[in-house]
Amino acid sequence: RKLNDTHVDYGPIRCAHHHFIKHAQQYPQKLAMVFEDQSITYTETLFYAQQVAFDLVTEYQVCPNDVVVQLMERSIELVIGILAIWMSGATYAPINPHDPIARLMTCMEQTNAKHIIFHSSTSHISVSSYSNIRINDIINDMTERDLIEILSSIPVSPEHISHIVFTSGSTGKPKAVSIE
Questions:
Q1: What is the DSSP letter of 179?
Q2: In this structure, is residue 133 part of a structural domain?
Q3: Within a domain: 156
Q4: What is the C-alpha to C-alpha distance for residues 137 and 130, in angstroms, rounded to an integer?
Q5: CA 48: distance to chain centroid?
Q6: What DSSP line would sit under 24-93, residue for residue?
């Protein structure tokens, strides 16, 4: 019986950002990310993600279950954006900034997204019919705010769609796939 007893109790099922918040509380000064010559602690990452989530909700009217496309290069800001999208209760949809504009538009139409988060290096690809959000502007223009009350009132559960990825399929046309 002991030999095949492989059950492990992981506790209640939580969203990925809830695990990140718990980890940030346990290890606030440990490095959360290292990218090229940049590094950032769990506390800093959580602070920035909460600030961006706050702006998504209050400035850009992102609501739970909205789809937010992220059109960004790999970076620390990319991860901050993912966490912020989840904290706002929205669904994260990554799109490769090197894809042709036709593919970008097809992906946007399939997801019914209204918002695109850009990085400073991808802001030249802005799409006029969508809410264009520059993550660097939010991060550079931060002030101390009481975010906990607003962010903790957003209903997010493991049953929400976490993110949408795109497959190319046999037709070559991107197809959106939702993941909880």
A1: E
A2: yes
A3: yes
A4: 17
A5: 12
A6: HHHSTTSEEEEETTEEEEHHHHHHHHHHHHHHHHHTS---TT-EEEEE--SSHHHHHHHHHHHHTT-EEE
Tell me the CATH number at 25. Answer: 3.40.50.980
User: Which pTM value belongs to this model?
Assistant: 0.79
d(CA 141, CA 136): 8
Question: CA-CA distance, 150 to 2, in Å (whole number)?
Answer: 47
What total number of domains does the chain contain? 1
> DSSP letter string over 157-177?
-TTS--EEEEE-TTTSS-EEE
d(CA 145, CA 25): 19
Q: Which residues pair with 131 in a beta bridge?
A: 115
Tell me which amino acid residue 43 is: T
Inter-residue contact 161 to 91 (CB < 8 Å):
yes
- Flag whether pLDDT at 121 surpasses 60: yes
Condensed to tens digits (0 to 9), the pLDDT of residues 36-71 reads: 999 999 988 998 998 899 899 999 999 988 999 999
8 found inside a domain: no
Pairwise CA distance, residues 114 & 125, whole Å: 15
The Cα–Cα gap between 180 and 168 comes to: 20
Mean pLDDT within 121-138: 78
Any domain includes 125: yes
